[in-house]
Design goal:
Layout: H1 2-5, E1 18-20, H2 21-32, H3 37-41, H4 54-67, E2 72-74, H5 80-92, H6 103-115, H7 120-136, H8 138-141, H9 145-157, H10 169-178, H11 187-198, H12 210-213, H13 217-236, E3 244-252, E4 255-262, H14 269-277, H15 280-286, E5 289-292
Parallel strand pairs: 4-5
Antiparallel strand pairs: 1-2, 3-4
Helix pairs in contact: 2-4, 7-9, 7-13, 9-11, 9-13, 10-11, 11-13, 13-14, 13-15
Length: 293
């Protein structure tokens, strides 16, 4: 109702939306002024089936807001019982089973990978290389563990769009990620993960890409860095066969030398070529020079 009364678009999924307490109190005041169920049913954004009971609930809610000095409300589509279930599942699992992502987030990402038949060997390899590059060049990007976790999620999910088709699968990945139920992530985080996955191949971010330009400037810069790392890691596993088992990374000034370590005597010329083709975005984002050795 707050969004509707302010004339804002109501998203399909409300998870992660923040509502200011003052806006809620204004809506409650509007509800309180109605004199009949029929009048309440005409209010913007109201669920007509709840018009007969919403006044009582609104007055109780108003009391909580005022007594607890609540400034804002963060919306979750889940209730206390779901939280107990998630918490119980988390405690059963061992921490090392969840790699770097927190318990719930990792389980969410893993479930999506299974649901959309992601090649986990490839995605986990890309993740490992991405995180190694992220850590090695931290002096340049100055990002923290939060962004590292976002990169990990995007690395694991970047190919979910393959289930639709290979052609333009990066765009399909964006759509799937941003339209999936992702417990543990807010809507904004899912959007950023989707955008990073969208730029793991093909075009760099452009002004005509509304999903990118709608982000605040700092998040645009973060996306360019993380997508640049993901693009490079994807190139290093170009044939999706892990012919490059690891990388050594050395810094000299603003030059980053990445040595590709082969898994066997199998030729990895294509991986060298793939990596060299993918350095552009990261070089542009950080003002560095990347050499593939």
């Amino acid at each position: 109702m707050v969004l509707a009364m302010k004339g804002q678009q109501i998203p399909d999924v409300l998870n992660g939306i923040t509502i200011q307490a003052r806006d809620l109190l204004e809506v409650i005041n509007t509800i309180s002024k109605t004199t009949s169920v029929k009048e309440r049913q005409s209010l913007p954004g109201i669920d007509e089936a709840r018009a007969d009971i919403i006044l009582a609930g609104a007055l109780i809610f108003e009391h909580f807001i005022k007594e607890l000095n609540i400034d804002k409300i963060l919306i979750s589509p889940y209730a206390l019982r779901e939280g107990i279930v998630f918490d119980t599942v988390q405690k059963i699992k061992e921490l090392n089973e969840y790699k770097h992502l927190t318990h719930l987030r990792y389980q969410t990402v893993l479930n999506l990978c299974h649901k959309f038949q992601v090649d986990l060997k490839h995605s986990e390899h890309v993740r490992d290389i991405s995180l190694k590059i992220f850590d090695a060049i931290s002096i340049f990007h100055k990002l923290c563990s939060y962004e590292r976790e976002i990169l990990e999620a995007a690395s694991l999910l970047h190919d979910v769009g393959y289930i639709i088709s290979h052609d333009q699968h990066h765009k399909h990945s964006y759509y799937i990620i941003t339209h999936s139920d992702m417990p543990g992530f807010t809507n904004d985080e899912a959007e950023i993960i989707g955008i990073i996955a969208r730029y793991h191949r093909k075009s760099h971010p452009k002004k005509k890409h509304l999903e990118f330009t709608s982000l605040p400037f700092k998040k645009q810069e973060m996306v360019k860095v993380l997508a640049g790392i993901l693009r490079l890691s994807e190139g290093i596993d170009r044939r999706r066969k892990q012919y490059v088992q690891d990388v050594n990374i050395n810094l000299k000034g603003r030059t980053v030398a990445i040595e590709l370590i082969p898994a066997s005597e199998e030729s990895y010329d294509i991986e060298i070529w793939g990596a060299n083709r993918r350095v552009g975005l990261l070089e542009e984002a950080l003002g560095i020079n990347i050499i593939i050795e």
